[in-house]
């Protein structure tokens, strides 16, 4: 349970050792302060006996018979000398304009605070309680009740006279009363009653549970939560009663209302006061404990608990022990709990002290979090409720959080939080950077410095760069890459890097960083030179981005040595800036690079580099023979004689064969295949490509005395040359490998040819017959003749042209067929078939 220690500016009484409790990490639900000013002055000479609370002011009664009206700060606004003895109770109507007071000497006063109306009466016994009608200000509600040995209802008649009615008596003193709406609840020695002022009926009796407790020492506490819910606290018992309407069918002689106990539970201590808080209860408890040293019972500090009522039990939400003045001498009856419904203020009244409890707001919550050093939670709470907090600023909490993290040594977290907390406040950023410098943690804050909005002074960024340059080259290089070049004075940093390179001239990290700084400074020449020296991959990006082609005309060899593929692609993509001629000249001393460039050029366009095709023959022969033959095939500009000479010198058979064939010397080419390559399949393939009978004859003559070659010819010659020509030339007795298989293959190929021919013949015959039948059907169709004026003979041709028979020329002696003159003239035929119609 949380311990709520309330202290004034001056000295406070210390609680006994037995009642001390260690402070918990759980946040309290309420905050406390003493009601001071005039109250302090009053209680120094007198003792509080009762108090009532209105939204506008407070009314405090004392043991010396005084009634004080106080503002919410405890300042005295009015004073009434009511009696020389103890004031037992004060009652106010809802308007706060009328007050009722009763005292131990039997005096009762009801008077208007702002009007002259007044009621005075002195009874022959002490009057313990008084309650004025909540709407006493109305003329129809001039009623109040008093209680001593009996409960009296006073009501003003139409002649301004007061008449009284006894509502209850005979069960001991009336010690507590609460009036809400049309219901009056009171407690005597036997229990709690509720009276309906409209129906003039008592509707319930709730008996007390623990009759062993003296009712004068442990009085009943009553509290209306609303117009129909009464909360009863007596001893250690709490009951929540609900007033309900009785159904008409159940009424008979019973009251129209009845009471149902909706919740009932026991508490750990004695109840001294009750108050509602939303759906929870605030309970003021009187505590007695036994000393471990003396084993005697003593009065401990009272407790103010917030509990959640359940049907048969309750759940404790919070519990605070209150250090009030003189709690060691107080009894249960000396404590009272009053509350203000409008503001959720709770007043704990004791003879020598008045403590105000109120719900903690967000400012209080943040105070508690800061006190517990829970800065992150405090910052989050402030951000969520920034419209509601009044005493705190998000920035102040954030700065305190950063300081806390720095003190704890969490420099990286502190630096990261700066981004969110400092935001766009450049002055605060600079202040924090200098603070991090003082503790030697500039590296921690460097990743989080603002780089755009806001921009800090260049000196800040330079200070951090120098810090990294002295101890961490890689970190320095990272910052140079990540930070825009306009954040700092570039020339200052360049000079600092140069100074360090004097000590370590081959440091690649520094050289690369210097190149980047040159790039920021638009000194692209120096940057390019460093990149080429380092063979850095960004060199091509730098050239493209800043159009540095004029600067690389004399550095082509370096670029090719670094990455020939990228270099060639770049050069070919920018021929308008660096000509082919210039590149070839620069690479004259590096023929292997020259070949790479010209080969890529030839792949892109066979004609662009035609002037270098003769040179390329030697380059291909020297560095890239696999691509020589494709080049010779695709190029139409290379000199064949030169190519043949080079290929013959290097004994490139395949290339020589191709060149001989291309130059028309097929027989020499075939001879080279047979004599140099000894590849009959290639020779046969070559003969097939040339499709020359003389070549086949030469191939047969060359192969006739070579059995393996004969086998190859027998397997492949069948479709181009009659195999009989070869078979007749084979010498008798010559052993030919796989002759049988070869002959079988020849016969199979022949049979296949026969089958193909027969199949083709069948298809042709079927197609011819189908077309003939179609033509016959077409020619057998009738033709419509429109002219029917008189009988005559008409000749209709299949082209649908019609002629009078007399108009047609007579058929010649050589051919009896007649033809359409029109179609014959146009060569469109056929018009040979004649259909005669006589009509």
Automatic annotation (TrEMBL):
Q: Where in the cell is it found?
A: Cytoplasm, Cytosol; Early endosome membrane; Endosome membrane; Late endosome membrane
User: Organism's domain of life?
Assistant: Eukaryota
Q: Extract the ranges annotated as region (Disordered).
A: 1-33
| Name this protein carries in UniProt | Vacuolar protein sorting-associated protein 41 homolog
Q: Which InterPro entries match?
A: Beta-prop_Vps41, Clathrin_H-chain/VPS_repeat, TPR-like_helical_dom_sf, Vps41, Vps41/Vps8, WD40/YVTN_repeat-like_dom_sf, WD40_repeat_dom_sf, Znf_RING_Vps41
Domain called Vps41 C-terminal RING finger: residue spans: 783-825
Which ranges are annotated Acidic residues under compositional bias?
14-26
The membrane-topology field of this record reads: Peripheral membrane protein
What is the scientific name of the source organism? Rhinopithecus bieti (Black snub-nosed monkey)
């Amino acid at each position: 349970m949380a311990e709520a220690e309330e202290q004034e500016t001056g000295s406070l009484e210390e609680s006994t050792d037995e009642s001390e409790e260690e402070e918990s990490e759980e946040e309290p639900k309420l905050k406390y302060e003493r009601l001071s000013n005039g109250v302090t002055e009053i209680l120094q000479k007198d003792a509080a006996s009762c108090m009532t609370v209105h939204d506008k002011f407070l009314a405090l009664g004392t043991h010396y018979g005084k009634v004080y009206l106080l503002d919410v700060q405890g300042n005295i606004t009015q004073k009434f000398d009511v009696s020389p003895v103890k004031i037992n109770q004060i009652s106010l109507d809802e308007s706060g304009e009328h007050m009722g007071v009763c005292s131990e000497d039997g005096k009762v006063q009801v008077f208007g605070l702002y009007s002259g109306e007044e009621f005075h009466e002195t009874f022959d016994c002490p009057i313990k309680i008084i309650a004025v009608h909540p709407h006493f200000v109305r003329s129809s509600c001039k009623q109040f009740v008093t209680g001593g040995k009996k409960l009296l209802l006073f009501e003003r008649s139409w002649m301004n006279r007061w008449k009284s009615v006894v509502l209850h008596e005979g069960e001991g003193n009336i010690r507590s009363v609460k009036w809400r709406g049309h219901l009056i609840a009171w407690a005597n020695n036997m229990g709690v009653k509720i009276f309906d002022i409209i129906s003039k009926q008592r509707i319930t009796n709730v008996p007390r549970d623990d009759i062993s407790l003296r009712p004068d020492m442990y009085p009943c506490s009553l509290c209306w939560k609303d117009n129909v819910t009464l909360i009863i606290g007596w001893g250690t018992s709490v009951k929540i009663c609900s007033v309900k309407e009785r159904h008409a069918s159940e009424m008979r002689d019973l009251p129209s209302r009845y009471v149902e106990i909706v919740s009932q539970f026991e508490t750990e201590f004695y109840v001294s006061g009750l108050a509602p808080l939303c759906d929870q209860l605030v309970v003021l408890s009187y505590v007695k404990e036994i000393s471990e040293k003396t084993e005697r019972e003593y009065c401990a500090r009272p407790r103010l608990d917030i509990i959640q009522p359940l049907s048969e039990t309750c759940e404790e939400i919070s519990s605070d022990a209150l250090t009030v003045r003189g709690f060691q001498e107080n009894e249960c009856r000396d404590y009272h709990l009053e509350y203000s419904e409008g503001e959720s203020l709770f007043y704990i009244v004791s003879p020598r002290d008045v403590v105000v409890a109120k719900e903690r707001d967000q400012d209080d919550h943040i105070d508690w979090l800061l006190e517990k050093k829970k800065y992150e939670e405090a910052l989050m709470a402030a951000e969520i409720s920034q419209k509601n907090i009044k005493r705190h600023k998000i920035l102040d909490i954030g700065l305190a959080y950063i300081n806390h993290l720095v003190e704890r040594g969490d420099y990286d977290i502190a630096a990261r939080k700066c981004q969110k907390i400092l935001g766009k406040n450049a002055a605060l950023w600079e202040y924090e950077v200098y603070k991090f410098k003082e503790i030697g943690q500039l590296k921690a804050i460097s990743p989080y410095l603002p780089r755009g909005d806001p921009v800090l002074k260049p000196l800040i960024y330079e200070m951090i760069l120098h810090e990294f340059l002295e101890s961490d080259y890689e970190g320095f290089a990272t910052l140079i890459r990540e930070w825009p070049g306009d954040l700092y004075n570039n020339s200052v940093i360049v000079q600092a890097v140069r100074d360090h390179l004097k000590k370590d001239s081959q440091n690649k990290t520094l050289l690369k960083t210097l190149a980047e700084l040159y790039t920021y400074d638009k000194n692209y020449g120096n940057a390019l030179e460093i990149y080429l020296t380092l063979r850095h991959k960004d060199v091509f990006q730098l050239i493209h981005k800043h159009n540095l082609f004029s600067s690389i005309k004399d550095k082509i060899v370096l670029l090719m040595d670094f990455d020939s593929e990228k270099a060639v692609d770049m050069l070919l993509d920018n021929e308008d800036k660096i000509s082919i001629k210039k590149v070839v000249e620069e690479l004259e001393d590096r023929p292997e690079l020259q070949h790479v460039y010209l080969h890529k050029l030839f792949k892109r366009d066979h004609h662009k580099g035609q002037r270098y095709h003769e040179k390329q023959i030697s380059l291909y022969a020297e560095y890239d023979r696999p691509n020589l033959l494709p080049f010779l095939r695709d190029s139409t500009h290379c000199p064949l004689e030169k190519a043949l000479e080079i290929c013959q010198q290097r004994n490139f058979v395949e290339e020589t064969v191709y060149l001989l064939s291309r130059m028309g010397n097929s027989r020499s080419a075939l001879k080279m295949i047979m004599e140099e390559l000894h590849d009959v399949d290639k020779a046969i393939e070559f003969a097939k490509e040339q499709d020359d009978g003389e070549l086949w004859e030469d191939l047969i003559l060359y192969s006739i005395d070579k059995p393996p070659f004969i086998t190859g010819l027998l397997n492949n010659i069948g479709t181009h040359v009659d195999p009989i020509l070869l078979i007749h030339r084979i010498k008798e007795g010559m052993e030919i490998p796989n002759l049988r298989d070869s002959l079988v293959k020849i016969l199979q190929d022949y049979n296949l040819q026969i089958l193909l021919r027969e199949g083709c013949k069948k298809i042709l015959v079927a197609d011819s017959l189908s077309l003939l039948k179609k033509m016959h059907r077409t020619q057998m169709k009738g033709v419509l003749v429109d002219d029917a004026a008189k009988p005559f003979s008409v000749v209709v041709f299949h082209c649908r042209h019609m002629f009078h028979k007399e108009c047609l020329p007579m058929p010649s002696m050589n051919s009896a067929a007649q033809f359409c003159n029109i179609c014959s003239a146009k060569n469109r035929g056929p018009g040979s078939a004649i259909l005669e119609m006589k009509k």
